[in-house]
Write a structure and sequence with these properties.
By secondary structure, this protein is an alpha+beta fold. It is built from 1 helix and 7 strands. A hairpin with a 2-residue loop joins strand 2 and strand 3.
């Protein structure tokens, strides 16, 4: 009986493995209509030379008045003194972080495509004047 089970199991395994190789890959049911399925890894061209690393992307900063400020760079939380490859985080402020490299410094801005301008006037020019002394207290 043991030998019969072993022969049956081996036969089923061989049939299943040959069917798995011949069957096309399953389509992703969550992919929106009209999008093509990606090519399998074996069909993708291989790069002759490695591509240069993508520049780091600053995602958020947390500046604390007391304690350690932090930043989220490429999904990784970093503090002053931490290393990002060959770069060292040397400063974190509300606008971004400053990285020191072997040959130069690099600034990663939180909003790199936003032009920053100085505001003109005091905060009272932005908000209407509120005279709290004239309000009656009940």
């Amino acid at each position: 009986m043991h030998r019969t089970f072993l022969v049956l199991f081996t036969g089923l395994w061989l049939i299943a493995s040959s069917l798995a190789e011949a069957a096309p890959p399953l389509a992703d049911p969550t992919r929106p209509a009209g999008f093509a399925e990606p090519a399998p890894m074996s069909a993708r061209p291989r790069l002759a030379t490695p591509s240069p690393p993508a520049p780091a992307k600053l995602m958020s900063v947390q500046v604390l008045s007391q304690g350690r400020s932090s930043a989220l760079v490429d999904g990784r939380v970093v503090h002053i003194g931490d290393r990002l490859g060959e770069w060292t985080v040397v400063a974190i402020d509300a606008q971004g972080i400053l990285l020191r490299g072997p040959h130069q410094d690099q600034r990663l801005a939180l909003f790199p495509n936003v032009a920053k301008t100085a505001s003109v006037g005091a905060p009272s020019s932005v908000y209407p004047a509120m005279n709290l002394a004239t309000k009656s207290s009940r």
